[in-house]
Each structure stands twice: as structure tokens, then as C-alpha cells.
Amino acid sequence: MSIFQDSNNVYHLDWDSSPWKPYYNKLTSRYLEEDSGDDTTIKVWCAEEELEGKVFTLTCDTDTVDKLTSVSYPNPAGGPVFNETDDFLTDVVTAHDDRTVKWWYGPGVAMQFPDGTHATTAYTQSTVYTHTIAASDIGEKVYDGGIHCWMKLPHAAQDGGTSPATETDIYSKNIPMEYINSDDFLIVFNSYGHRPIKVSGTNIGLTIQFQYADVLNAETGQFVNATAPIWDDIDIGSTTTDVNTSHMAASLITSGGFDKRENVKSIRFYWYTEDTTGTEAIFHGGQFIRMSLYPVKR
Predict the structure, then answer these.
(1) What is the pLDDT of residues 113-129, one digit of tens each?
(2) What is the domain partition of the chain in residue ranges?
């Protein structure tokens, strides 16, 4: 059940998602001072026990809007450095610690800015932080009746499958059937409130779709798409239309609304940005979304 099952490098194209867990680690947070650069404190969060001992290096810098410019960590300790250099723009009204939204820059690790941090004057130079995950950062296990995983946002528009190595389609691991069987269930998108960051473009959207198979432990190539998506081309950045103010969305999946559900032995879902008319607003790299499923007994 390792979050590094796909790859030790969570920023690599091979890493899509973590396995489903029947529990979560209670969120912990603390303030972190800079190693070098400007005297600007940030708030860091941890939500995964497997991250204990990991050392994340965060670099922030000034620009038109101050931003987190890169994240890196060695794995194993002393080994090659894995990094994500796609910019995360800071914002004076989002991802501050008086709000629920955060920047989940890894599967289970996040940052915020203290409330009152200015969007354009917090940094005058490259400023480096070292976030070492200690045993005290690992919260207690909470069994809330659901199952949970991490998924990466797509980093390119879907192109008909001609370039599978560009993170166009992001797949979850197979959903444990013992948790849903033929019951209805609630799916919660972005249950830890990541603030999505994207480049400019005329089309902004994410489509989320279930896939199913009539064999146990199905693999890629054995799944077929459900007839209709769960969410079709929604704007996960718009808190006035498709998601709430924490950029979350929820939907009740009923057995009657899931085609061929009675014969299903394997289920997973995937998401993608459709390549439609106009310029797609592509999500920046290294963004991680927590997904939660809760069975609803009939």
C-alpha cells in the first residue's frame, strides 16, 4: 500500500496515484523558518505516515506574484534528487492559514502562507526552506468508514492517446470491492482542499470518469468506460460554479446509475483535460488531490 508504488519519484510521468487506504493520518502542521533568503515564515502540513524521514526542499521567489518555484527531495536519503520546477503562484486571498485550502505539493505534504503574507512583497530573492518530516509530524490513524488515495492532476491535454507519457490521463488504483460491492457510495473530489494552479487558456476543465471490468484485479486494457462521466469538463478552479470554496466536489454514485454495475468485479476511475476547441488551460505540474469514497448502505 505504498504511496511510492508507481515510482519513488512522485513528480515522474509514471506516478499517477497512491493505493486506497481504509484510514487516514490526522493532519498535523507547524511553522517553518527559512534556511536562506528573506525572513518569511511558512506553514507546512503532513498527512502521510510513509513520509517520515523525507526531506523536502522548497524554494520561493519574487515575481509579478510571489511564488513557490520548485520542490525537491532525495530518495533514498543521499540518492538522486527528485524535483518539480513548475511554478505555484501564491495568492493574497488563497492558501493562507486562516483558510482550509493548501498547496499539496506532494502526496500528503502541503504548505500555506501565514495570514497577512503579501502576494507581491513577501520575497525579494530566492528563499529556501527545508521541510524534514519528523515522527511528531505523523498524526494518528483515523478510521472514518471511507477509503482514501492521492492522485496527480493531468499535466497535458488529452490527445487521443498518441502521447501517453505526457500525463494526459491519470488513473486511480483499483477500488477495493469489499468497500463498495453493490452499495451506493459518495465520491469526494479534493477532500483535503488543494488550491489548483493552471496556466492561462480559453478552456478550463477536468473530466472524471469511472471504468469497470468483469474480471478481478483488472489491468489496463481490460477496463471499459462507464457510459457517462461523473463530472464532465468542470472548472475545478471556479468556486462559484463547479466546486465549493475549498475546491471540493461530491457526488452520490448509485447502483442504478452505474451501467453494468451488477456484473462489475473491478472499478477504477480516471481524469483528464479534454483537448477541445481553443487553447486548454493546463494544470501546473506536481499537484496532488486527495480522493475519498464512502459507502452508503441501502
Answers:
(1) 887 777 778 889 999 99
(2) 25-141, 144-296
